[in-house]
């Protein structure tokens, strides 16, 4: 069974042109004029783009005493409904648990996926077992390793562990990821706020000011430089960390920054809503910031100093959020966004003139496919690439509402927002999962995508290694002590 996408305009990260696309065996078989196939998808007036890749999701993740509410079923349905055809989820070992053990758990959960997926491996503790298993993880096609610099006493790793793990990732040719917040300072500020009687969701934002993120981002960049590993900073929410990333890139370091659609479009005023549920539903780390920080993130996408827009999709129901009534530190951290990332970014980015359609493709798909070593299988419209495609109608409109979303939770942080720009058809390895705006999901269709190590180092470091190679100095006399 072949499918042809007819009459659309192909938009990739670097090209815009009119052509049909023929799909056979789940891959792109031909691109050209007048192609014929068994099934025809009408793309008149639409843009044909690589399907979105969301490199930052937490599906069915054990966290803060509960599990995130969207699993690989509802999560990947949400992804497809919004034009995203691949997710990269975090396999998260609990402290003391082996990496391969954790991977087995994520393998089991992901069997339900409706679209393709891959994993990042989290390094949540350090020891010989972790060091050894990292090789096996890379051999399984997982080449990116995540480190939490916050969540003290749970997921956080200290600087000695960070440096050891970064060096190992560098030696394996992988990419180090960081959640960059100073976990010691967050713990201290949280305790003080609580002791002073600040128990509401707004205190969550006070406990994690931009400086906490800027400090950790700078530290991670320096440690990555000394370890010689490329660094990817997840959920960059503020100018303080963006500035560190800009500077590192200008110095020739391989450092990438990932803002979230939530931080780009929602601000800190959400935490001052009089409705406790409204504010708590938006508690995530890092928290939403003010407009100046938002402007910085948009500028980073425009100039290329920030590379990828993700969601950190980690959804909790209102009931789960209410665990934190009376103590903001117990509100499960996380928000949803998988279904809304593409339409929200199109509406606030492309329709406003901030981003070109080509830049939209770059930051939603192509850049991350390259960073994670899966381009051009993913992130491209090329003969031979997987047929993960979205036929995008820039004129279609809707109002976002929880009542019609795929996510399993009972609200949506973008509730009531009008978006313009929606998927008409979405293909996942050739299967038409959205047909004329209607979802036709296929549980278990998604496959694991194994990735290759990049094998690149931080160039700044290669120089550093040479300059600081141990070189003992010959000395004739050793002064007596006390002199
Ligand atoms: N931040 C969140 O808000 N949720 C999941 C983990 C994280 O870092
Ligand atoms: Zn995080
Ligand atoms: Zn996350
Ligand atoms: Zn199939």
From TrEMBL:
Enzyme class: hydrolase
InterPro entries with a match to the protein in the record: Amidohydro-rel, Hydantoinase/dihydroPyrase, Metal-dep_hydrolase_composite, Metal_Hydrolase, Metallo-dep_Hydrolases_sf
Keyword Hydrolase: yes
Cofactor(s) the protein requires to work: Zn(2+)
Superkingdom of this protein's organism: Bacteria
Pfam families: Amidohydro_1
GO molecular function, a single term: dihydropyrimidinase activity
All residue ranges annotated as the Amidohydrolase-related domain in the record: 47-418
EC number of the protein: 3.5.2.2
Hydrolase in keyword set: yes
Record key words, sorted: Hydrolase, Metal-binding
SUPFAM superfamilies, sorted: Composite domain of metallo-dependent hydrolases (SSF51338), Metallo-dependent hydrolases (SSF51556)
Family indicated by similarity: Belongs to the metallo-dependent hydrolases superfamily. Hydantoinase/dihydropyrimidinase family.
Protein name: Dihydropyrimidinase
Organism, as annotated: Paracoccus benzoatiresistens
Lineage of the organism: Bacteria, Pseudomonadati, Pseudomonadota, Alphaproteobacteria, Rhodobacterales
């Amino acid at each position: 069974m072949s499918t042809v996408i007819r009459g659309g305009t192909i938009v990739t990260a670097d090209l815009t042109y009119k052509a049909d696309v023929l799909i056979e065996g789940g891959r792109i078989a031909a691109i050209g004029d007048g192609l014929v196939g068994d099934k025809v998808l009408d793309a008149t007036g639409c843009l044909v783009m690589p399907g979105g890749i969301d490199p930052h999701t937490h599906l069915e993740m054990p966290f803060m005493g509960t599990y995130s509410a969207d699993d690989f079923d509802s999560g990947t349905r949400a992804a497809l409904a919004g034009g995203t055809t691949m997710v990269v989820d975090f396999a998260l070992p609990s402290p003391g648990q082996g990496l391969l053990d954790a991977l087995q758990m994520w393998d089991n959960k992901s069997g339900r996926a409706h679209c393709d997926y891959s994993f990042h491996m989290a390094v949540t503790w350090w020891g010989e077992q972790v060091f050894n298993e990292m090789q096996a993880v890379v051999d399984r096609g997982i080449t990116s390793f995540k480190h939490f610099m916050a969540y003290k006493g749970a997921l956080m790793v200290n600087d000695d562990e960070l440096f050891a793990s970064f060096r190992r990732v560098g030696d394996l040719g992988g990419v180090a990821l960081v959640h960059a917040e100073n976990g010691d300072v967050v713990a201290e500020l949280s305790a003080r706020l609580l002791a002073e009687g600040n128990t509401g969701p707004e205190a969550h934002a006070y406990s994690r000011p931009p400086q906490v993120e800027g400090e950790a981002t700078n530290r991670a960049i320096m440690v990555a430089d000394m370890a010689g590993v490329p660094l990817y900073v997840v959920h960059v929410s503020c100018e303080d960390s963006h500035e560190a990333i800009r500077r590192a890139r200008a110095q020739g370091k391989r450092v990438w920054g990932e803002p979230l659609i939530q931080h780009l479009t929602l601000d800190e005023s959400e935490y001052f809503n009089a409705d406790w549920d409204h504010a708590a539903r938006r508690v995530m780390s890092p928290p939403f910031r003010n407009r100046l920080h938002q402007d910085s993130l948009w500028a980073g996408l425009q100039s290329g100093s920030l590379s990828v827009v993700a969601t950190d999709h980690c959804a909790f129901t209102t009931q789960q959020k209410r665990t934190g009534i009376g103590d903001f530190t117990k509100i499960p951290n996380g928000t949803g966004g998988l279904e809304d990332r593409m339409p929200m970014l199109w509406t606030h980015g492309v329709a406003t003139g901030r981003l070109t359609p080509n830049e939209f493709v770059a930051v939603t798909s192509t850049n991350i496919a390259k960073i994670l070593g899966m381009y051009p299988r993913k992130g491209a419209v090329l003969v031979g690439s997987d047929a993960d495609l979205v036929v995008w109608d820039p004129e279609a409109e809707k109002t976002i509402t929880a009542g019609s979303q795929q996510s399993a939770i009972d609200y949506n942080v973008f509730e009531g927002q009008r978006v313009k720009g929606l998927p008409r058809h979405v293909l996942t390895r050739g299967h038409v999962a959205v047909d004329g705006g209607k979802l036709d999901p296929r549980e278990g269709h998604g496959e694991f995508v194994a990735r290759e190590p990049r094998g690149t180092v931080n160039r700044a470091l290669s120089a550093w290694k040479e300059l600081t190679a141990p070189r003992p100095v010959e000395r004739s006399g050793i002064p007596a002590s006390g002199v």
